[in-house]
Design brief:
- The protein is mainly alpha-helical.
- 75% of the residues lie in helices and 6% in strands.
- It has helices at residues 2-22, 25-65, 71-84, 91-94, 129-140, 143-168, 171-214, 218-235, 247-270; strands spanning 97-101, 110-115, 118-123.
- The chain has a 3-stranded mixed beta sheet, sandwiched between helices.
- Helix 6 runs antiparallel to helix 7 (171-214) and helix 7 runs parallel beside helix 9 (247-270).
- The protein is elongated.
Length: 271
Protein backbone atom coordinates (compact mmCIF):
# COMPACT_ATOMS: atom_id res chain seq x y z
CA UNK A 1 0.00 0.00 0.00
CA UNK A 2 2.84 2.42 0.84
CA UNK A 3 4.52 1.62 -2.48
CA UNK A 4 1.30 2.32 -4.43
CA UNK A 5 0.86 5.65 -2.59
CA UNK A 6 4.40 6.69 -3.56
CA UNK A 7 3.73 5.78 -7.17
CA UNK A 8 0.53 7.83 -7.22
CA UNK A 9 2.26 10.82 -5.63
CA UNK A 10 5.05 10.58 -8.20
CA UNK A 11 2.48 10.47 -11.03
CA UNK A 12 0.76 13.53 -9.54
CA UNK A 13 4.09 15.36 -9.44
CA UNK A 14 4.74 14.53 -13.10
CA UNK A 15 1.26 15.80 -14.06
CA UNK A 16 1.87 19.10 -12.25
CA UNK A 17 5.29 19.42 -13.84
CA UNK A 18 3.83 18.79 -17.30
CA UNK A 19 1.08 21.34 -16.65
CA UNK A 20 3.66 23.97 -15.65
CA UNK A 21 5.45 23.44 -18.98
CA UNK A 22 2.30 23.53 -21.12
CA UNK A 23 0.29 26.35 -19.55
CA UNK A 24 1.56 29.93 -19.11
CA UNK A 25 2.29 31.15 -15.60
CA UNK A 26 -0.71 33.53 -15.65
CA UNK A 27 -3.12 30.65 -16.30
CA UNK A 28 -1.56 28.52 -13.60
CA UNK A 29 -1.84 31.38 -11.13
CA UNK A 30 -5.50 31.81 -12.03
CA UNK A 31 -6.55 28.18 -11.74
CA UNK A 32 -4.22 26.57 -9.22
CA UNK A 33 -6.57 27.06 -6.26
CA UNK A 34 -9.64 25.31 -7.70
CA UNK A 35 -7.35 22.70 -9.25
CA UNK A 36 -5.76 21.98 -5.89
CA UNK A 37 -9.17 21.77 -4.17
CA UNK A 38 -10.49 19.47 -6.88
CA UNK A 39 -7.39 17.27 -6.80
CA UNK A 40 -7.52 16.99 -3.01
CA UNK A 41 -11.23 16.14 -3.14
CA UNK A 42 -10.55 13.42 -5.71
CA UNK A 43 -7.75 12.02 -3.57
CA UNK A 44 -9.96 12.01 -0.43
CA UNK A 45 -12.73 10.21 -2.31
CA UNK A 46 -10.31 7.64 -3.70
CA UNK A 47 -8.70 7.12 -0.29
CA UNK A 48 -12.09 6.44 1.31
CA UNK A 49 -13.02 4.09 -1.54
CA UNK A 50 -9.74 2.20 -1.18
CA UNK A 51 -10.01 1.89 2.62
CA UNK A 52 -13.52 0.46 2.36
CA UNK A 53 -12.38 -1.99 -0.31
CA UNK A 54 -9.49 -3.16 1.89
CA UNK A 55 -11.90 -3.69 4.80
CA UNK A 56 -14.27 -5.62 2.56
CA UNK A 57 -11.44 -7.78 1.23
CA UNK A 58 -10.62 -8.76 4.81
CA UNK A 59 -14.28 -9.42 5.61
CA UNK A 60 -14.63 -11.54 2.46
CA UNK A 61 -11.69 -13.71 3.56
CA UNK A 62 -13.26 -14.12 7.00
CA UNK A 63 -16.67 -15.04 5.62
CA UNK A 64 -15.21 -17.68 3.32
CA UNK A 65 -13.72 -19.41 6.35
CA UNK A 66 -17.08 -19.63 8.19
CA UNK A 67 -19.00 -22.92 8.03
CA UNK A 68 -21.62 -23.25 5.31
CA UNK A 69 -25.21 -23.93 6.20
CA UNK A 70 -26.00 -27.57 5.56
CA UNK A 71 -27.65 -28.28 2.22
CA UNK A 72 -31.08 -28.88 3.77
CA UNK A 73 -31.07 -25.54 5.64
CA UNK A 74 -29.72 -23.62 2.64
CA UNK A 75 -32.35 -25.17 0.38
CA UNK A 76 -35.06 -24.26 2.91
CA UNK A 77 -33.91 -20.62 3.09
CA UNK A 78 -33.77 -20.41 -0.70
CA UNK A 79 -37.27 -21.88 -0.82
CA UNK A 80 -38.50 -19.17 1.55
CA UNK A 81 -37.01 -16.48 -0.67
CA UNK A 82 -38.46 -17.99 -3.85
CA UNK A 83 -41.90 -18.20 -2.23
CA UNK A 84 -41.99 -14.56 -1.23
CA UNK A 85 -40.34 -12.94 -4.24
CA UNK A 86 -41.96 -14.91 -7.05
CA UNK A 87 -42.71 -12.62 -9.97
CA UNK A 88 -40.01 -10.13 -9.00
CA UNK A 89 -36.52 -9.65 -10.40
CA UNK A 90 -34.90 -11.17 -7.32
CA UNK A 91 -35.04 -14.93 -8.14
CA UNK A 92 -32.02 -14.67 -10.45
CA UNK A 93 -29.99 -13.75 -7.34
CA UNK A 94 -30.94 -16.84 -5.39
CA UNK A 95 -28.57 -19.28 -7.09
CA UNK A 96 -25.60 -16.94 -6.51
CA UNK A 97 -26.13 -16.47 -2.76
CA UNK A 98 -23.96 -18.46 -0.37
CA UNK A 99 -25.47 -19.20 3.04
CA UNK A 100 -23.15 -19.22 6.05
CA UNK A 101 -23.96 -20.29 9.59
CA UNK A 102 -24.01 -17.36 12.01
CA UNK A 103 -23.50 -18.30 15.65
CA UNK A 104 -24.80 -15.63 18.02
CA UNK A 105 -26.54 -15.53 21.37
CA UNK A 106 -29.56 -13.69 19.95
CA UNK A 107 -32.72 -15.67 19.27
CA UNK A 108 -32.63 -15.09 15.53
CA UNK A 109 -30.47 -12.89 13.36
CA UNK A 110 -29.09 -12.53 9.83
CA UNK A 111 -26.96 -10.17 7.80
CA UNK A 112 -25.88 -9.88 4.19
CA UNK A 113 -22.60 -9.07 2.48
CA UNK A 114 -21.64 -8.49 -1.16
CA UNK A 115 -18.17 -7.89 -2.55
CA UNK A 116 -16.42 -8.66 -5.84
CA UNK A 117 -19.51 -10.36 -7.23
CA UNK A 118 -19.89 -12.72 -4.26
CA UNK A 119 -23.09 -12.60 -2.21
CA UNK A 120 -23.48 -13.99 1.30
CA UNK A 121 -26.32 -14.17 3.77
CA UNK A 122 -25.27 -15.20 7.26
CA UNK A 123 -28.06 -16.80 9.24
CA UNK A 124 -28.63 -18.08 12.77
CA UNK A 125 -30.56 -21.31 13.13
CA UNK A 126 -33.80 -19.54 14.07
CA UNK A 127 -33.76 -16.29 12.10
CA UNK A 128 -37.35 -15.15 11.40
CA UNK A 129 -38.62 -14.69 7.86
CA UNK A 130 -38.66 -10.91 8.28
CA UNK A 131 -34.92 -10.82 9.08
CA UNK A 132 -34.09 -13.07 6.10
CA UNK A 133 -36.16 -10.97 3.70
CA UNK A 134 -34.65 -7.76 5.10
CA UNK A 135 -31.17 -9.01 4.20
CA UNK A 136 -32.33 -10.15 0.78
CA UNK A 137 -33.66 -6.60 0.34
CA UNK A 138 -30.13 -5.24 0.84
CA UNK A 139 -28.85 -7.50 -1.95
CA UNK A 140 -31.82 -6.74 -4.17
CA UNK A 141 -31.27 -2.96 -3.91
CA UNK A 142 -27.44 -3.32 -4.20
CA UNK A 143 -26.87 -1.26 -1.05
CA UNK A 144 -23.24 -2.35 -0.63
CA UNK A 145 -22.35 -1.09 -4.12
CA UNK A 146 -24.19 2.20 -3.67
CA UNK A 147 -22.81 2.73 -0.17
CA UNK A 148 -19.27 2.60 -1.52
CA UNK A 149 -19.94 5.36 -4.06
CA UNK A 150 -21.79 7.58 -1.60
CA UNK A 151 -19.04 7.26 1.01
CA UNK A 152 -16.36 8.26 -1.53
CA UNK A 153 -18.47 11.19 -2.79
CA UNK A 154 -19.21 12.52 0.70
CA UNK A 155 -15.51 12.38 1.63
CA UNK A 156 -14.60 14.25 -1.55
CA UNK A 157 -17.20 16.98 -0.93
CA UNK A 158 -16.35 17.32 2.77
CA UNK A 159 -12.64 17.76 1.90
CA UNK A 160 -12.74 19.76 -1.33
CA UNK A 161 -15.25 22.47 -0.37
CA UNK A 162 -13.56 23.66 2.84
CA UNK A 163 -10.14 23.57 1.17
CA UNK A 164 -11.40 25.71 -1.73
CA UNK A 165 -12.92 28.19 0.73
CA UNK A 166 -9.67 28.28 2.70
CA UNK A 167 -7.56 28.93 -0.40
CA UNK A 168 -9.81 31.64 -1.87
CA UNK A 169 -10.74 33.59 1.27
CA UNK A 170 -8.80 36.46 2.82
CA UNK A 171 -6.35 35.85 5.64
CA UNK A 172 -8.76 37.34 8.19
CA UNK A 173 -11.64 35.12 7.07
CA UNK A 174 -9.39 32.08 7.10
CA UNK A 175 -8.42 32.73 10.70
CA UNK A 176 -11.98 33.33 11.92
CA UNK A 177 -14.18 31.03 9.87
CA UNK A 178 -12.00 28.34 8.31
CA UNK A 179 -11.99 25.98 11.36
CA UNK A 180 -15.77 26.32 11.59
CA UNK A 181 -16.22 25.58 7.88
CA UNK A 182 -13.89 22.57 8.05
CA UNK A 183 -15.82 21.18 11.02
CA UNK A 184 -19.22 21.75 9.43
CA UNK A 185 -18.22 20.06 6.20
CA UNK A 186 -16.79 17.05 7.99
CA UNK A 187 -20.00 16.74 10.01
CA UNK A 188 -22.07 17.09 6.83
CA UNK A 189 -19.99 14.38 5.14
CA UNK A 190 -20.51 12.04 8.08
CA UNK A 191 -24.23 12.83 8.20
CA UNK A 192 -24.47 12.19 4.46
CA UNK A 193 -23.07 8.68 4.92
CA UNK A 194 -25.26 7.97 7.95
CA UNK A 195 -28.37 9.22 6.16
CA UNK A 196 -27.72 6.90 3.23
CA UNK A 197 -27.12 3.98 5.61
CA UNK A 198 -30.39 4.70 7.41
CA UNK A 199 -32.22 5.04 4.08
CA UNK A 200 -30.89 1.62 3.04
CA UNK A 201 -32.18 0.03 6.25
CA UNK A 202 -35.63 1.57 5.73
CA UNK A 203 -35.67 0.35 2.13
CA UNK A 204 -34.72 -3.19 3.21
CA UNK A 205 -37.47 -3.11 5.87
CA UNK A 206 -39.99 -2.01 3.23
CA UNK A 207 -38.88 -4.83 0.93
CA UNK A 208 -39.45 -7.42 3.69
CA UNK A 209 -42.80 -5.92 4.67
CA UNK A 210 -43.97 -5.81 1.05
CA UNK A 211 -43.08 -9.50 0.58
CA UNK A 212 -44.89 -10.57 3.77
CA UNK A 213 -47.87 -8.34 3.02
CA UNK A 214 -48.14 -9.76 -0.49
CA UNK A 215 -48.41 -13.29 0.94
CA UNK A 216 -50.59 -12.11 3.87
CA UNK A 217 -48.25 -13.83 6.30
CA UNK A 218 -49.45 -12.39 9.62
CA UNK A 219 -47.62 -15.02 11.78
CA UNK A 220 -44.26 -13.99 10.26
CA UNK A 221 -45.09 -10.32 10.90
CA UNK A 222 -46.03 -11.14 14.50
CA UNK A 223 -42.60 -12.77 14.90
CA UNK A 224 -41.10 -9.44 13.82
CA UNK A 225 -43.26 -7.65 16.40
CA UNK A 226 -41.89 -9.93 19.13
CA UNK A 227 -38.33 -9.18 18.05
CA UNK A 228 -38.85 -5.41 17.93
CA UNK A 229 -40.62 -5.42 21.31
CA UNK A 230 -37.44 -6.96 22.69
CA UNK A 231 -35.30 -4.44 20.76
CA UNK A 232 -37.34 -1.53 22.19
CA UNK A 233 -36.85 -2.87 25.73
CA UNK A 234 -33.02 -2.86 25.39
CA UNK A 235 -32.70 0.19 23.13
CA UNK A 236 -32.15 2.65 25.99
CA UNK A 237 -29.47 0.44 27.55
CA UNK A 238 -27.27 0.24 24.43
CA UNK A 239 -25.25 2.79 22.48
CA UNK A 240 -27.35 4.67 19.90
CA UNK A 241 -27.24 3.01 16.48
CA UNK A 242 -27.23 5.91 14.04
CA UNK A 243 -27.14 3.65 10.98
CA UNK A 244 -30.56 2.12 11.72
CA UNK A 245 -34.01 3.58 12.36
CA UNK A 246 -35.15 3.34 15.98
CA UNK A 247 -36.65 0.02 17.05
CA UNK A 248 -39.86 1.79 18.09
CA UNK A 249 -40.38 3.28 14.59
CA UNK A 250 -39.74 -0.11 12.97
CA UNK A 251 -42.14 -1.78 15.41
CA UNK A 252 -44.84 0.77 14.58
CA UNK A 253 -44.43 0.12 10.85
CA UNK A 254 -44.78 -3.67 11.26
CA UNK A 255 -47.81 -3.26 13.54
CA UNK A 256 -49.45 -1.00 10.95
CA UNK A 257 -49.02 -3.64 8.24
CA UNK A 258 -50.60 -6.27 10.52
CA UNK A 259 -53.47 -3.90 11.27
CA UNK A 260 -54.02 -3.28 7.54
CA UNK A 261 -53.99 -6.99 6.72
CA UNK A 262 -56.48 -7.84 9.49
CA UNK A 263 -58.76 -5.02 8.35
CA UNK A 264 -58.55 -6.37 4.81
CA UNK A 265 -59.41 -9.88 6.04
CA UNK A 266 -62.43 -8.52 7.92
CA UNK A 267 -63.71 -6.73 4.83
CA UNK A 268 -63.27 -9.88 2.72
CA UNK A 269 -65.23 -11.96 5.28
CA UNK A 270 -68.10 -9.44 5.31
CA UNK A 271 -68.27 -9.42 1.54
Amino acid sequence: MIKSNKILLFIGFLVLLQASLIFPASKLKQYWKPAMALGTAAWAGYDTYRDIQIGRDQELSRLKSLPDHDEVSAAYIKEIFAYYVSGQKTPFLLDTIKFKRLERDTSGDAYSFKHKGERFILVTDCAPDFALLHELGHLYHRHKDKQLGYAALSSAVATGLPLYYFLTSTAKKRFILAPFIFGCNLLLGQNFRLSFGRFGEIQADDFALECLKKKKNIPALEEAVQYYNWAVSVEDQEKPDLMHPSASSRLAKVEQVIKDLKAQESREIKE
